[in-house]
Design goal:
The chain has eight helices and 21 strands. The chain is α/β, with parallel strands linked by helices and about 475 residues long. It folds into two domains: about 35-115 and about 170-205, Immunoglobulin-like, CATH 2.60.40; about 205-465, 3-Layer(aba) Sandwich (Rossmann fold). The radius of gyration is 23 Å and the shape is elongated.
């Protein structure tokens, strides 16, 4: 598993703070109890992306000798402003179901801690407290529950060309102290110490598997930054599908990696589990400005995105009959718009919390779609209802379902099977009122939709099973 320093701040890349005053690399004392400082080689932050964004979920401490995993407990370490849930040894700076003796001690942390959040928006992601480098949530326009793109023009929401970030990325960094004794496999005891240790490197699960590039589009003159996941066993003699994920307005102009850390919309397709079932490329552009608003007149970045997809099919062994689009809010609108303007481009699309003028959507009746929206979403829900009616009027069968947003993974799997059993080219699932917004949260039903929608593997399986 590779390591690299990740991004900090809203719009520019940065490095993490240097390790504190702990003296790493001191000479080992062969058979005596020693201080932590003399035997610790460093500490690595481990992050994971959830439906509501990237979080710091563990710290891996590297020692100079193999550690006896059986001697560790949750009281061995304390992490500032965090809840320790599990402690074990490992041979690498990686999570594990069970500990194994090795030079790393992995301290797992609760993702529910306020200070866990590394992606912060103005709508309920939570601003971590007591965490070094914690910014204040950006004061610019943030997505509204009443608009697919983030607010009606002139109503205080983002409009085409707006470059104000609606979210902030916090540097992944943890500070911990060794509260109990750590014992090596040879019986050497490393005594507890009050010296604070700060992480100096980061492992970003799945996110690190993407690479960052820039596309200069000769047709539009626009430059578009993007993230690309290439299948780990890529063979140019084979043919692979490609999934295009388009983010919402809160991620505009944040950082190239923004679409990877704001939620699961991009990284879920690149997970080891999904790749084991469907080897595929995953493309996630980072838009430097709002591409589309409620006027439904997109900027030239709309066409640049299509041109980027086409250029990648020429550079890699990508099957042009297995191209897929997905997006949330602004990205959902782009997905719908692209299927209308380029009806032969995508084999299937996953549309999450978006809408398009009903009088323009007749071409969607010939497409394969899975649409998810929350009934709490006062703009996207009636908008999608209108689209479905047009599709039905065109003679296309639409499978419909109402889901409980608080369902378990097993219940969602059954829900997906029930929809698939209807054998329709267009599938429409709405989350029941009041089931997507977490208790005590100020997150809108609009934004809460994609926190759940991209956690359902069966939908992704259906999308990737389609072809032209």
């Amino acid at each position: 598993m590779k390591r690299r320093t990740f991004i900090a701040g809203a719009a520019t890349a940065g490095s993490l703070a240097a390790v504190g005053s702990v003296a790493y690399g001191a000479a080992a004392e062969p058979d005596s109890t020693a201080t932590k400082a003399g035997h610790v080689r460093g500490a690595t932050a481990i992050t994971k992306v959830f439906g509501d964004g990237q979080k710091l979920i563990a710290v891996a401490v590297e020692y100079d000798r193999e550690i006896d995993s059986s001697t560790l407990s949750t009281s061995t370490f304390a992490v500032t402003d965090r809840t320790v849930t599990k402690v074990y040894a490992n041979t690498t700076a990686a999570l594990a179901e069970r500990g194994r003796d090795g030079r790393y001690v992995v301290v797992e942390l609760s993702p529910d801690d306020t200070a866990a959040a590394l992606w912060v928006t103005g709508q309920g992601s939570g601003t971590p407290t007591g965490t070094p480098g914690t910014p204040t949530a950006t004061a610019g326009p943030s997505p509204s529950s009443s608009s697919g793109s983030g607010g009606a023009p002139g109503g205080g929401g983002p409009v085409v060309g707006d470059t104000t970030p609606g979210g902030t990325i916090v540097a992944a960094k943890g500070t911990l102290t060794q509260k109990g004794t750590v014992t090596t496999t040879r019986g050497t005891r490393y005594a507890a110490s009050g010296t604070a240790l700060t992480t100096s490197s980061v492992v970003n699960l799945i996110v690190d598997d993407f690479k960052q590039f820039t596309f200069d589009d000769p047709a539009t003159g626009q430059t578009l930054k993007y993230n690309l996941f290439v299948p780990k066993n890529y063979d140019p003699r084979k043919s692979y599908p490609l999934v295009l994920f388009m983010h919402d307005a809160s991620v505009v102009n944040v950082a190239t990696e923004g679409p990877l850390v704001q939620g699961l919309g991009a990284v879920c397709w690149a997970s080891p589990e999904d790749q084991a079932r469907h080897e595929s490329f995953v493309l996630a552009p980072e838009y430097g400005s709002v591409v589309i608003d409620d006027t439904y007149e997109p900027s030239t970045l709309f066409d640049t995105t299509v041109n980027l997809v086409k250029s990648l099919t020429k550079r890699y062994a990508i099957d042009q009959k297995r191209l897929y689009a997905t997006g949330q809010s602004m990205g959902a609108m782009m997905t719908l718009g692209m299927n209308i303007k380029h009806p032969d481009l995508f084999a299937a699309s996953f549309v999450v919390a978006g809408q398009w003028p009903a009088e323009q959507v007749a071409p969607l009746a010939a497409k394969k779609l899975w649409v998810v929206v929350a009934q709490d979403d006062t703009k996207a829900y009636p908008g999608e209802n209108a689209i479905m009616q047009v599709i039905k009027d065109q003679g296309t069968k639409v499978a419909t379902a109402v889901w409980d947003g608080q369902s378990t993974a097993a219940q969602f799997a059954a829900d997906v099977r029930n929809v698939k059993a209807q054998k329709a080219p267009v599938n429409y699932a709405s989350f029941e009122v009041g089931t997507v917004i977490p208790a005590g949260s100020n997150v809108s039903g609009h934004m809460a939709t994609w926190r759940i929608a991209y956690t359902i593997p069966g939908v992704r399986d259906w999308i990737l099973s389609q072809s032209q």
